[in-house]
Amino acid sequence: MYCLSADEAIEAIQEYQPDILLLNYSFRGGDKTGRDVALWMDRNYRSPIRVAAHSDRSEEDLRQLFKGTECVKYFISGDRIKDFIEDCTRKEILAD
């Protein structure tokens, strides 16, 4: 699911309880950022989830943008999204 704002992302997370979340830093709507979503998750969301921050920015930039968040464990730059999803899928299959 693609969300246009941080509030929409939070509503979708609450409703769908995803196993994997790819989180950009900026949204097209509103002033809140992906960091705001991550901080909300740190305070309110306890279901197991793999959260990755994604951007065309460098991994170092992403780590700075999401500094202080606990749920974001992966930082993906450029076109490495496919590798991340395949890795998560492989881990889910092996766990079953």
Describe the structure.
- This protein is α/β, with parallel strands linked by helices.
- The chain has one domain (6-95): Rossmann fold (3-Layer(aba) Sandwich), CATH 3.40.50.2300.
- Helix content is 46%, strand content 17%.
- The chain is built from 4 helices and 3 strands; from the N terminus they run H-E-H-E-H-E-H.
- Helix 3 (59-65) links the parallel strand 2 (50-55) and strand 3.
Quick structural gist:
This protein is an alpha/beta fold and about 100 residues long. The chain has helices at about 5-15, 35-45, 60-65, 80-95; strands spanning about 20-25, 50-55, 70-75.
Topology:
Layout: H1 6-16, E1 20-23, H2 34-44, E2 50-55, H3 59-65, E3 72-77, H4 81-95
Parallel strand pairs: 1-2, 2-3
Helix pairs in contact: 1-2
* Count of folded domains: 1
Question: In CATH terms, what is the fold-level topology?
Answer: Rossmann fold
> Helix coverage percent of residues?
40-55%
Write out the strand line-up for the largest beta sheet, numbering strands in chain order.
1-2-3
Q: Mind telling me the C-alpha Rg?
A: 13 Å
CATH superfamily: Response regulator
Which structural class fits the helix and strand makeup?
Answer: alpha/beta
Largest sheet: 3 strands, parallel
Number of helices: 4
Give the topology string: H per helix, E per strand.
HEHEHEH
State mean pLDDT (0 to 100 scale): 90
Strand content: 15-25%
Shape verdict: globular
SS elements, strand count: 3
What is the CATH class name?
Alpha Beta
Q: Please mark out the parts with pLDDT under 50 across 5 or more consecutive residues, or reply none.
A: none
CATH architecture title: 3-Layer(aba) Sandwich
Distance between the termini: 25 Å
